[in-house]
Amino acid sequence: MNVKGIHHLSAMTGGITVNYQFYTEVLGMRLIKKTVNQDDTSVYHLFYGDERGNAGTELTFFDFPGIRQNQKGVSSISGTSLHVRNDAALAYWIERFTEHDVTHSPVIPYAGRNVIFFEDPEGQELALVSDETNSGVPGGTPWEHSPVPAQYGIIGLGPVKLTVRKPESTLAALRLMGFTEKSRIPALVAGQEDIIIMQVAEGGSGGEVQVEPRDDLAIARLGKGGVHHVAFRIEDEEELLAWIEVLNREGLQNSGFVDRYYFRSLYFREPNGILFELATDGPGFDTDEPFETLGESLALPRFLEHQRESIEDHLRPLVTKRD
């Protein structure tokens, strides 16, 4: 019943065109699904990932035009990372970020790995993590048509950082899912407690969560540049149903079974208020589109297809068809 690692992160954007350009043309990720937020079909939901959008590689965005800027604070997913194969890839990315005027740090050691911290155009805090010394949950396969050479390409999601006021509550929720403590590192801010590194399954970049205690911040206010939720991998529907029983037994309110068409889900908030999702590895994003043309047109789950005309009328134009 332990989770298998990180499944995806869903973040917020107020500028879908700039978002699409940055994550595909600068970061070289593949747009593997252009669809809508199933809970608010007036806005896009874009999925970026490896060549097929394998679980553990997906960074997704909800598009809310005019949304306020994210305000940092506790009860938030405060750090998103992506991993690459080795230190040579980081050297490539330093040059690429400079070329494209991306705000970034030099390569620095952090939590046992070499890392570049950077920001997307809306100020989302991101990191590129080298797998030079990493072993654990395997990454994916970069898309062969990416503008970034495959040997330097992003292979999946790396460690996720959670900033909370009461760390023990969040740690208890992670332990319930099978996470164990790997190590602790000094706080990034003087006077604060150590950051606790938790890992699950094989560990490594794709199975790590960093819990940052902070008692000097207000509660975060979600907006563009912020992260809405983090999802963790589970095997299949049978296991998802078993998790519903576990959460109910533990007294954790949850969504129950949710069919997202490309995967099946279950949502709950850990005690500090961060939204967690458990999501199955399949069926996958090539369920309703050929592999070769993933993300080129608006894809709707079968249960929304009858609303296509109305949905398309309410969406901003976004051209994603490739030459």
Describe the structure.
By secondary structure, the chain is α+β, with helices and mostly antiparallel strands. The chain has one domain: Roll (2,3-Dihydroxybiphenyl 1,2-Dioxygenase, domain 1), CATH 3.10.180. The protein is built from 5 helices and 17 strands. The chain has helices at residues 16-26, 87-99, 167-176, 237-249, 308-314, and strands at residues 6-13, 30-37, 40-49, 58-63, 76-84, 108-110, 113-119, 125-130, 156-157, 160-164, 180-185, 195-199, 208-213, 227-234, 258-259, 263-269, 275-283. The strands form 2 sheets. Strands 5, 6, 7, 8, 9, 10, 11, 12 and 13 form a 9-stranded mixed sheet that branches. An 8-stranded mixed sheet has the order 2-3-4-1-14-17-16-15. A hairpin with a 2-residue loop joins strand 2 and strand 3. It is globular and about 55 Å long.
Which regions are unreliable across 5 or more consecutive residues at pLDDT < 50?
Answer: none
The major beta sheet can be summarized as: 9 strands, mixed
Count of individual beta strands: 17
CATH architecture: Roll
Q: Percentage of helical residues? A: 10-25%
CATH topology: 2,3-Dihydroxybiphenyl 1,2-Dioxygenase, domain 1
Domain VOC: 5-131, 156-281
GO molecular function, one term: dioxygenase activity
InterPro entries: Extradiol_RC_dioxygenase, Glyas_Bleomycin-R_OHBP_Dase, Glyas_Fos-R_dOase_dom, VOC_core
Keywords: Dioxygenase, Oxidoreductase
